[in-house]
Amino acid sequence: MEKQDRIKRKRRRLFMRAAILFSIVAAVGYVFVTNFFMAEASIVNEGDDAPNFSLVNMEGEVVELADYEGQGVFLNFWGTYCPPCEDEMPYMEAEWQNYKDKDVEILAVNVGESELQIDRFANRHSLNFPS
Q1: How far apart, in whole angstroms, are the C-alpha atoms of residue 107 and residue 63?
Q2: Neighbours of 127 (CB within 10 A)
Q3: Are 127 and 95 in contact (CB under 8 A)?
């Protein structure tokens, strides 16, 4: 009897290990399929229309990319903690001054910092383009 109990326990362990291994293989397979095959359908290529998105501007208004259809849009994601972002802001301000009357907009999207941080940064760099 003891030998039969041991055999039953071994079979149960084998079954449990096989079920766990199957679950892991299925999860890894799902990740590969969704990341490598299905994700390619959502990639934006050169020449494609930009996907629409909406954000809240510094005045509290909801702004969509679609609002600027037919205009040139310079889209920049930035942060106050980013030295390259700090270096490029004077150039963006100069370009906005050059193109603001020619249907070209600058959309400078901050990556989630407080309004106080953004205002201080804009004041420090004398930025006038809309944010």
Answers
A1: 10
A2: 19
A3: no
Question: Mind listing the pLDDT tens digit for each residue in 108-127?
Answer: 888 888 889 998 998 988 88
Percent of the chain at pLDDT exceeding 90? 22
What gap in Å lies between CA 71 and CA 66, rounded to an integer? Answer: 10
- Residue 50 burial by CB count (10 A; 0-12/13-18/19+): exposed, middle or buried? exposed
- 3-state secondary structure labels for all residues of the chain: CHHHHHHHHHHHHHHHHHHHHHHHHHHHHHHHHHHHHHHHHHCCCCCCCCCCCEEECCCCCEEEHHHHCCCEEEEEEECCCCHHHHHHHHHHHHHHHHHCCCCEEEEEEECCCCHHHHHHHHHHCCCCCCC
CB 79 within 8 A of CB 110: yes
